[in-house]
């Protein structure tokens, strides 16, 4: 065989060997997501928007999204563990920062009470990406990227009595979340906080074990807390942040243009989720009030409330190595 024919034959063989790889490259990529809620919930809608945006920005090949809803794959804690393992059971989802504390002590600080003055301040913090050091630590240690920030529910106190100022707040028996920072701050404000299981709050108020709880509008509505505590004290003590997460091990296996599309879509889907939840939060309260189910009570000393808990927040930020972030948040003028 002539040398030219031999080279041609080797080239053809190489091309044939490469064909299966070409075929594989053309196959659809499948990404698995998870959410605890149904189609109507804002978290589900934010993840659907994420899917739509990825498909808009990546046109080099098909990408299939499978979003597992209604806690069919467990709860957010499990989603984060699956993403960290990087085996494809869950590639993306929305997860509370509290479930990331194993990898970053500062993660729960992202969602701490009394951190934001109002929605404008909260939006500034997210727009300027002030939680980037926390996100970087989580991506490095957990191998999960925070590609966008949803959330936006404003948390207030629902109570079985009317409260308008710091004096009336003193001694209020209120249920708080289990993270220690919640008990510390509510106690510093003069209240008497208790950690009680979420599904026991209704009965605890009904039986006078406690007088109040705290939640955003969606929780007050879904759990019917207004039936036993119809006074919604507008303390605006917390605004939720729920990161859209993506497994970096999955991400690394994807084509570079698709990686870019995913990160861009995550940012935009997070912004969509924030806008939707913060808007609907007020609408839900208005509807409940119009129906006579609750009364929104103005809390006249919001600034004094924040001043009372600021020393606790300073100590907590120092404790979890988030002091620099906290200072930058406070330096912003809303």
Short summary:
The protein is α/β, with parallel strands linked by helices and 334 residues long.
Which word captures the global form? globular
Share of helix, binned: 40-55%
In terms of DSSP E residues, the strand content is: 15-25%
Low-pLDDT residue intervals, each spanning 5 or more residues: 1-25
Count of extended strands: 9
- Structural domains: how many: 1
Structure description:
With about 325 residues, the chain is of the alpha/beta class. The chain has one domain (about 5-330): Bacterial extracellular solute-binding protein, family 7 (D-Maltodextrin-Binding Protein, domain 2, 3-Layer(aba) Sandwich), CATH 3.40.190.170. About 50% of the residues lie in helices and about 20% in strands. The protein is built from 13 helices and nine strands. Strands 1, 2, 3, 4, 7, 8 and 9 form a seven-stranded mixed beta sheet that branches. α2 links the parallel β1 (about 30-35) and β2. It is globular. It starts with a helix and ends with a helix. Mean pLDDT is about 90; it is low at about 1-25.
